[in-house]
Design a protein that fits this description.
248 residues, Rossmann fold, 2 domains, elongated, Rossmann-like_a/b/a_fold, membrane, DUF218 domain-containing protein, Cell_Envelope_Assoc
Length: 248
């Protein structure tokens, strides 16, 4: 139990430091408090492992077994879904040409695209410059954004030399579900059974594809890179988002 006690203590310390890093970076602020929860759980586990003989005497066996099984089941479910998320985050050598590409929006600071959105747009540019698909730019306007994400994306790609006639704005959405539903409405008015390419952050591809498959029969995803230090945060956050979409 000494090794487990030490490991849980180290993981708890890492979690609080990681929370501080995310707060300074302003990455996924709404979910960053998850790491505080992880820290608290780790410190509780540290106490349990460090005082296991006392805990064993005072906690009924049925409760200890139930907690152990719950943790094992949670870890198995987590690893299964994370394997899907990681699989779809891997970039391929080449991608098929489809009728439409849908670029999913991310934060805009005033009128300037964030690093996350810039990475998505660079991945979009690399894909669309080599084929003739139309491009749906999907993203509404958040509270700290002076223009819609769709408009910011359009300006970015025009500056990169993409023909404006290829770019279609979807500027009402505020979630991934709405991104793809509203994009489907636009595409469905132009073409039946269209094939699509979804371009988004690598951690986001799996969930975006699963949602898109409700509306489209032929879907592929192109992943954009994510800043290395924040990869654990977004991959863990995405697990809970996938569970939410699966259950609800």
């Amino acid at each position: 139990m000494g090794i487990l006690a030490a490991f849980s203590l180290l993981l708890g310390c890492f979690s609080i430091l990681y929370f501080l890093y995310l707060t300074a970076y302003n990455a996924g602020a709404g979910f960053s408090f998850f790491w505080i929860l992880v820290c608290v759980i780790c410190f509780i586990l540290h106490f349990i492992f460090k005082n296991y003989d006392t805990v064993k005497l005072n906690v009924p066996k049925v409760i200890r077994v139930a907690v152990f099984l719950f943790i094992i089941i949670l870890l198995v479910v987590f690893l299964i879904f994370e394997s899907f998320i990681v699989r779809d985050s891997m970039r391929k050598e080449s991608y098929e040409e489809t009728d439409y590409a849908i670029v999913l929006g991310a934060a805009v600071r005033g009128t300037t695209v964030s690093l996350t959105l810039s990475n998505r747009l660079e991945a979009a540019y690399e894909y669309i410059k080599g084929n003739n698909c139309k491009v749906i730019l999907s993203g509404g306007q958040g509270p700290s954004e002076d223009i819609t994400e769709a408009e910011a994306m359009k300006r970015y790609l025009i500056d990169k030399g993409i023909d404006e006639d290829r770019l279609i704005k979807e500027d009402q959405s505020s979630s991934t579900q709405e991104n793809l539903k509203y994009s489907f409405d636009i595409i469905n008015n132009e073409k039946d059974n269209a094939s699509i390419t979804i371009i988004t952050s690598n951690y986001h591809v799996y969930r975006a594809k699963k949602i898109a498959e409700k509306y489209f029969n032929d879907v592929q995803g192109v992943p954009a890179k994510t800043l290395l230090p924040i990869i654990p945060h977004y991959y863990v956050r995405e697990f809970f988002a996938v569970i939410k979409d699966t259950v609800f």
